[in-house]
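[[Local backbone shapes]]
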Amino acid sequence: MNIEITEFVEGARQAKGLTVIIDVFRAFSVECYAMDSGAAKIIAACEVAEAFELKKKYLKAVLVGERDEKKIEGFDYGNSPTELIKADLTGKTVIHTTTAGTSGIVNAVNADLIVTGSFVNASAVAKYIRATGPQHISLVAMGYRAKESAEEDLLCAEYLESLISGKEGDFESRIADLRITSGKRFFKPENIDFSPPTDFFLCTMINRFNFVLKAEKRFDGNFDMERIDI
């Protein structure tokens, strides 16, 4: 298997083969928690306007997402796992849009197959990839607001590469150390209302979930996220 690591929207556009779109803080951690909270369906939308249009078709759906890290006006929840673990999403459709993560899915136009990646289900993603056996794997670290390299996304890509290749590495301590680097924003008092410290810990719970979320393109250009239990 050939494994390539790229970044940002441009990296998603260049991705080929089996593609993993990585957004640890917080998009694809959030989607795992949404599924675990009982969501029957997740639709990933690139634009806020598209999310509101989807809401008109799925009247009982909930809107989840952020711009500039904060909950979008008119949405039910922000892009926060802390909010979602308190929510009863049983049987509901979740419409999800974020600055980086969901835009990565939409822009991976040359990928053969798209799954999402984060620390909370990394082992499941690696097992799925090994079982699928692709010749080429693209690991796309979406970064902070899809513009700046994010240590957590690059570390997750490295962790996935290690799991797929069967290599050993001290990742637990490096993941914990994100608290004093790229994750320190979760501990700033001014961010607590939309980006609380619990989000950091929920997003760095390694291998909490044993399922993969696979993106399937819809007729309207958005993506259904299919849960595949491993």
